[in-house]
Amino acid sequence: MNIVFFQAAFFLYFIGAGVSLAHLVTLRPGLARIGRGFLAGGLALHSLAILWRIFESGRTPLTNLHEALSFFAWATIAVYFLLHFKFRLEVLGAFVSPVAVVLMVLASLFPKEIVPVEPILNSFWLPIHVSLAIIGNAMFALAFAAGVMYLIQERQIKSKKIGVFYRRLPALQVLDDLNYRCLTLGFPLLTLGIITGSIWAESAWGTYWSWDPKQTWSLITWFIYAALLHGRLTVGWRGRRAATFAVVGFFFLVFTFLGVNLLLSGPHGFK
Amino acid sequence: MEIILIGLSHKTAPVEIREKFCLTKDGVAEVLDRLRGISGIREGIVLSTCNRLEIVAAGEGREAEEADLRSLMAEMGRMRPGELAPYLYSYQGGEAVGHLFRVASSLDSMVLGEPQILGQLKEAYGRASDCKATGLILNKLLHRSFSVAKRVRTETKIANQAVSVSFAAVELAKKILGELEDKRVLVVGAGEMSELAVRHFISQGVKEIFVTNRTFSRAAELAEEFNGKAVPFEEFQRQLAKMDIILSSTGSSRYLVRREELTSVIRMRKNRPMFFIDIAVPRDIDPKINEIDNVYVYDIDDLEGIVEVNKEERQKEVAQAQGIIAEGVKSFSQWQRGLEVVPTILALREQAEDVRRREVAKTLALMKNSSEENRKLLETLTTSIVNKILHHPISMLKHQEERGHGRLYTDMTRKIFHLDPEEEEEPVTHE
Question: Which of these is catalytic: B15, B22, B50, B389?
Fold first, then answer.
């Protein structure tokens, strides 16, 4: 049953992304709201899907790649709405919703069956560690979207070639603020995710840190975002450099999230 | 009755001709007066701006009317009619309506989509109605033109982008810096264009204006005008780090701000973005400054380039605007046709018959023993009531048509009996 809700949510996200992109192209004022309506409907169904899966599996549904990617997509849309009420950027949806759709596509490629989790990993740290890390990731997904928008807009204004995006994208300053806000929200979440993970590792495997590939890559990603936050707070990094960091950081994050699981082996992560 | 429009504009007449037709308030009143003296002309409006003079009139549609209007125009410009003829255009009926709608929607303006023309037209209408020169037809026509213009403005993007250099600069500033309320503007050198831009900035909420000029007294003067602060010219470079927008238009032959100086300024500002608007020729701001991150430099050519792009964007909206205008023309001519007496009488009869039939059917459905005889009686009774009630209004309409007041009475009748259900327009206030 949770799969039905998941697929319905996927469908609504897909339409929502399509309508949001149509808004970006046509700039017809009503379309942005309709797009958000679909995304909100998708979010509601997706929440039901997750709750249903908790009910059906009797545990936190964050143990395999399907579950994790699905939750990542859910968190991205949820965070988008949270930031929408603060920033009210009509075109943001067109940049964020495709990210969520891609995550949903990936989520539906992996086996969706509910399988029992290894008893050693079934602890109360599971929901805390994984959800903190993934909500942090969702924040960085938003920072990524803001970064892409910033880089496009900055290019347009700097080169003095006023193209199709100039009118469509918001002010540079606003995009930079959004980037900063996502960073200051995402970084503590990621940090807490890593700390809770190592506490859990201690209780499950008897060691806080074992340099398995997941841990190593998480730390690399953490350093990138730490450098960005440090640069912003002390020497006043902003603008293009901050946007580039947010974009590059997100690629590392995606690799840590997916690539490590699929390409490298280790005891960590999702099956 | 036929609508006639005659006029000249920047599209047909050079400024030497147009300036002869710049009317004062009293001049307009006089022309309106003369207009009504022309035989056959019932209503008139005179629109006079620096780019056009147009007379819109409602007449009986005789050929002499147009010729009379032409000679009135010639007299106004103190020219011979033959001399003026090549600069004039004239339209009748639907074409005149279409032209007026195009003018109101700013499709005929020198700067496509500029907003002033609608206000000017409202003013012209106000004057004419103050002089009691407008009546049923032109009242309707002008209200229609206002609502068509409003639709064009809101449904197309014809008025969306800045098409002047100073507006384009303000738009860019907002795209770079976001909200302008807490930003500081430094004006280097005083000139007409920078004054204009500063006014735009102030209207966007900028509160802190700084002015510097080689002659300090001039800077102080301008600063006072904008409620800003004057900065001595020797000092302004040291103050750069405080400024977000720098608007430069001096006559200096070399760069006032160089790249080397600015790298330290931007460091002091912790990379908070800066926007240089350089409208001086030769330029005041080293163009290489644009290469520094978070600093943007636009010179006059860059701004003109944006204005060009924006103008093209507006041009793309013309087709859609014309569609809206065509709809407006069609619905206006429908209204005009409705003013004929015969269709109005028919519509009135039809409506009454409709009501009668429905009510009879309702009553018959309630009657328990409705014999054929009863039904016939009921039909006769209701038909004769309807005929009796309509008799007077219909003969009144016919009678008034003979006296030449047909339109006024048909319009009233249509309103009282609600014969045009979709007719509803917002009232227009002219200030």
Answer: B50
